[in-house]
Amino acid sequence: MNETLHINWTRCDGRGLCTELLPAVLERDDWGYPVIRHPRNGDGSNVSIGPDDAEAARDAEKLCPKLALGLHA
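Above: the chain sequence. Below: its structure as tokens.
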């Protein structure tokens, strides 16, 4: 089952740790904020995380210094 990673834009300050942990899923914009590489239906806040990236997504959620990430089933 895929999980969904949610980016809380009001908390994020663009440090970029999540983009380093999930390079196949996220990239940085010009200001350092995470951008979903392949957004679906124009949703830039939620991205489906497959089994190959699940562990890295959990790490990103735990290590985010601003608690801007949420991982949901």
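The CA atoms of residues 11 and 58 lie 18 Å apart.
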